[in-house]
Write a sequence for this structure.
């Protein structure tokens, strides 16, 4: 099976290089016709923030990995990338790699839940542009099987593996519903924004934002439909919040132990959770000693993340087993691609002879006699062809003996002159 | 028949043990196949318990609520049954191990020490006593369950506080839910205990010539009732919440157990029907 392709991902190149070769949907739409014209008969392109994968069935035998790399670099007008930044895959390894990507074991975060959807979208796009044909339709099926089976039959996708998701997991163990809760996000930078968006998605009842720079606060507050708390009077309103997430770039504590202690006194023991995800920390960690106060910083949340990552990595052998099973199915199918036309031609060849010969006696015998002869010749042909057909199919389906199957197929075509039916008729 | 009853009692203990072991194993191992199997096993155990109680009632000719150990068996049943209903209604399956251990311990005491041959006081064979005892048992089951939820609350609280995200963290429902379940169990327990006390105080003076309001059992029961009454008032007025509420429930349960044991074993009471 001639599938081959290239991959640039987090294992082969830095984020800057990966970004430089990232292909948007519009770019893929523009790039596929170029590939179709000069390199691939069919194929697909997957491009995410962590990887760009280009795979296909080559148009000619002399196409090399460098041809695909050059074509991509030329299209993106990128210089300075060498072959070492790409991984090249051929035949079995190409299929295996595509399935590994779909199963998420090749992702930066093992078990990444988004990758299967991205793989599906990539196949859809290729199909839409007429780039995906027989082989890649089947490969799409195999990829979806692998992705779904990995999720359903293993625990590769379970557990929080990002700080923000781990923070949510902790919050979920404290509060039963977020609708009746109020949250304050301190800091309107990248982390603060992410936290605010997460809280809004969780359905938090009241969301407030505070930041030193008012303009930034206003932008984030409008984005997440939150209210604004004046940064200078922040300490006076702390008791109004059940959840406080702090992510500023301050180099010292912005909230001290005594301030939280006084806040807890005013809250009369109502459970409160502080997620201090700033580095260095924004809130004095001593507050964790207070009754009813749950304090988590990056380190404590990392405990959850690391534990879950380790668990996911332990699932990789199970996923590899699934990949192997799906590869076997795929190659069984792929190997029959060459043999099926031979079997069909072979049977057609005998059927034509049979029909030709019984046609000669059609008007010389009674109908009932003709029917008997017709049935008898069908049975004879069936018995003659049974073993060659079965053996050829079996050889091709075993997957490991593809070469033998091809050899047999070629011999049959040669012996019975199946590629030149007109000549057969002429000789007749 | 006596022998059948004894064999059934041991079988019942075995079933409670297997059910508890199933819940315990699932709590730590979190195996998919056990999620429904353990519930089914609990159902079978409770069904067998009903058969055992019916069989005992038929053979002895009265409800099995006479001796302390018969009551323990009824307690085990009502705790198991109440938990079964809670699990069915809420689909929270991670708390069973903490509750079923209480049921198992009560059943163990019952199986090991129960007497099958004794004289039954004639007064014990009437309707008010049955209602009094059954409501008291159900009430006590409810406060046992509340204590189990309080314990779970404290364990989870400590887990989150100390950033030790162990099995407790993974398998128990959240703190607010545990607090709510604890509170509901106390409310139910309190109502049932109140009914039991009202029936007892209304019926006992006419049934027992030696009845006294200063009887140690009545006094301790009233103190237990008062403890939970105060807890409910404080909770409703939001004076105790979270960890303090959980601790109160747990201490309240320990106090009620100790006071019942003390009055049953040390002090003399007209409320003792076996002797």
């Amino acid at each position: 099976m001639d599938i081959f392709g290239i991959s640039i991902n987090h294992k082969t190149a830095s984020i800057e290089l990966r970004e430089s070769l990232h292909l948007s949907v519009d770019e893929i739409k523009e790039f596929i016709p170029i590939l179709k014209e000069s390199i691939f008969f069919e194929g697909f392109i997957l491009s995410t923030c962590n990887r760009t994968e280009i795979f296909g069935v080559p148009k000619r035998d002399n196409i090399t990995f460098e041809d695909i790399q050059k074509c991509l670099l030329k299209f993106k007008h990128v210089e300075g990338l060498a072959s070492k930044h790409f991984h090249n895959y051929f035949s079995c390894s190409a299929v295996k790699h595509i399935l590994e990507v779909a199963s998420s074991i090749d992702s930066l975060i093992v078990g990444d839940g988004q990758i299967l959807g991205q793989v599906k979208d990539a196949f859809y796009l290729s199909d839409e542009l007429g780039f995906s044909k027989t082989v890649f339709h089947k490969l799409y099926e195999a990829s979806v099987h692998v992705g779904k089976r990995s999720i359903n039959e293993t625990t590769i996708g379970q557990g929080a593996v990002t700080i923000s998701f781990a923070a949510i997991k902790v919050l979920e163990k404290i509060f039963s519903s977020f609708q009746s809760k109020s949250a304050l996000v301190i800091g309107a930078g990248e982390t603060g924004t992410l936290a605010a968006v997460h809280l809004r998605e969780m359905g938090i009842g009241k969301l407030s934002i505070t930041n030193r720079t008012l303009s930034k606060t206003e932008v984030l507050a409008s984005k997440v439909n939150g209210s604004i708390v004046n940064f200078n009077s922040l300490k006076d309103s702390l008791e109004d919040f059940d959840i406080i997430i702090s992510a500023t770039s301050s180099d010292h504590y912005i909230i001290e132990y005594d301030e939280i202690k006084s806040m807890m006194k005013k809250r009369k023991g109502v459970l409160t959770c502080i997620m201090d995800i700033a580095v260095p920390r924004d809130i004095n960690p001593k507050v964790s000693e207070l009754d009813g106060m749950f304090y988590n910083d990056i380190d404590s949340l990392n405990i959850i993340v690391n534990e879950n990552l380790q668990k996911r990595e332990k699932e990789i052998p199970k996923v590899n087993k699934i990949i192997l099973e799906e590869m076997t199915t795929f190659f069984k199918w792929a190997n029959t691609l060459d043999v099926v036309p031979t079997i069909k031609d072979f049977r057609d060849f005998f059927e034509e002879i049979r029909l030709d010969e019984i046609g000669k006696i059609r008007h010389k015998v009674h109908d009932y006699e003709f029917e008997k002869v017709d049935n008898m010749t069908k049975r004879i042909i069936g018995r003659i062809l049974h073993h060659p057909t079965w053996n050829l199919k079996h050889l091709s389906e075993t997957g490991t003996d593809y070469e033998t199957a091809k050899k047999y197929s070629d011999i049959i075509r040669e012996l019975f002159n199946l590629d030149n039916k007109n000549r057969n008729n002429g000789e007749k | 028949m006596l022998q059948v009853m004894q064999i059934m009692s041991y079988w019942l203990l075995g079933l409670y043990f297997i059910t508890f072991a199933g819940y315990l194993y699932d709590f730590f191992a979190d195996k998919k196949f056990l999620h429904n199997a353990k519930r089914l096993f609990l159902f079978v155990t409770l069904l067998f318990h009903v058969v055992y109680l019916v069989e005992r009632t038929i053979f002895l000719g009265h409800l099995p609520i006479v001796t302390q150990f018969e009551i323990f068996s009824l307690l085990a049943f009502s705790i198991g049954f109440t938990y079964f209903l809670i699990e069915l209604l809420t689909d929270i399956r991670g708390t069973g191990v903490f509750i079923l251990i209480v049921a198992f311990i009560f059943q163990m005491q019952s199986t090991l020490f129960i007497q099958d041959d004794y004289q039954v006081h004639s007064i014990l064979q009437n309707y008010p006593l049955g209602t009094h005892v059954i409501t008291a048992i159900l009430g006590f089951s409810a406060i046992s369950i509340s204590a189990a939820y309080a314990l779970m609350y404290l364990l989870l609280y400590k887990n989150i506080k100390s950033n030790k995200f162990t099995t407790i963290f993974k398998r128990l429902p959240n703190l607010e839910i545990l607090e709510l379940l604890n509170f509901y169990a106390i409310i139910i327990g309190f109502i049932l205990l109140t009914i039991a006390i009202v029936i007892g105080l209304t019926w006992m003076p006419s049934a027992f010539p030696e009845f006294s309001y200063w009887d140690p059992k009545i006094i301790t029961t009233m103190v237990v009732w008062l403890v939970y009454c105060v807890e409910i008032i404080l909770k409703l007025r939001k004076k105790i919440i979270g960890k303090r509420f959980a601790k109160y429930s747990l201490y309240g349960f320990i106090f009620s157990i100790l006071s019942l044991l003390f009055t049953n074993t040390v002090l003399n009471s007209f409320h003792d029907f076996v002797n």
